Inverse folding.
């Protein structure tokens, strides 16, 4: 081949390579746009899914918050209704220490070994505890206990039931007031009084028993 032929050969293939480069670049550009469009569509799809998920989550959270508020309101309503029912039940039932005797025997005789024991009876500021204290004092006085004057309802609210207390003593020691408190508590229980508990307090004077009367424990079982 002559030099001119070689020149024409290289010019032809140079043009051909330039054309192929153009075609390749155009192909890359077009396919790149297509890929970008597909990726953009997929991204929009993901964003829509995320938005839907967030919306669903917000809806669920709102429903959960509403349900929780409704539950709290229902609990408050039930507690209010229960308190009203308990108040009505307490008004319908009265605790009383009945004096029972036969043939020279009386049920309060178990208290007589501690005749002369000082007793302080205090009660919450409610009608039923005040009435209950009256029947309690009568039985204790009949057994020879020395009851301190009734000073009216206490300023503090005592726990439901009856608490019977005496002076606290060191471990290993005994006191007549402690034994008397135990006997008195058992006497109340034998009379059908519920919620009776004992306690010890170092501030209570020697030879003294303190009785604290709170409201009647839930009297529902008594009404069945």
């Amino acid at each position: 081949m002559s030099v001119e032929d070689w020149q024409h050969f290289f010019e032809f293939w140079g043009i051909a390579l330039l054309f192929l480069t153009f075609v390749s670049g155009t192909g890359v550009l077009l396919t790149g746009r297509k890929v970008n469009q597909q990726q953009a569509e997929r991204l929009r799809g993901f964003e829509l899914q995320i938005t839907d998920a967030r919306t669903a989550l917000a809806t669920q959270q709102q429903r959960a918050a509403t349900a929780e508020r409704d539950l709290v309101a229902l609990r408050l309503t039930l507690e209010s209704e229960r308190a009203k029912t308990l108040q009505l039940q307490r008004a319908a039932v009265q605790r009383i220490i009945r004096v029972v005797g036969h043939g020279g025997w009386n049920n309060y005789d178990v208290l007589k070994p501690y005749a002369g024991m000082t007793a302080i009876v205090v009660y919450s500021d409610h009608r039923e505890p005040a009435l209950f204290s009256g029947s309690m004092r009568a039985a204790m006085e009949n057994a020879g206990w020395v009851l301190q004057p009734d000073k009216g309802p206490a300023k503090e609210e005592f726990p439901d039931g009856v608490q019977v207390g005496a002076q606290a003593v060191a471990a290993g020691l005994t006191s007549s007031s402690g034994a008397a408190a135990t006997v008195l508590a058992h006497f109340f229980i034998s009379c059908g009084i519920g919620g009776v508990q004992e306690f010890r307090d170092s501030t209570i004077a020697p030879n003294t028993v303190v009785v604290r009367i709170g409201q009647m424990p839930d009297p529902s079982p008594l009404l069945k």
User: Anything to note?
Assistant: The mean pLDDT is 82. The beta strands are 101-102, 105-106, 118-123, 146-147, 162-167, 196-201, 208-213.
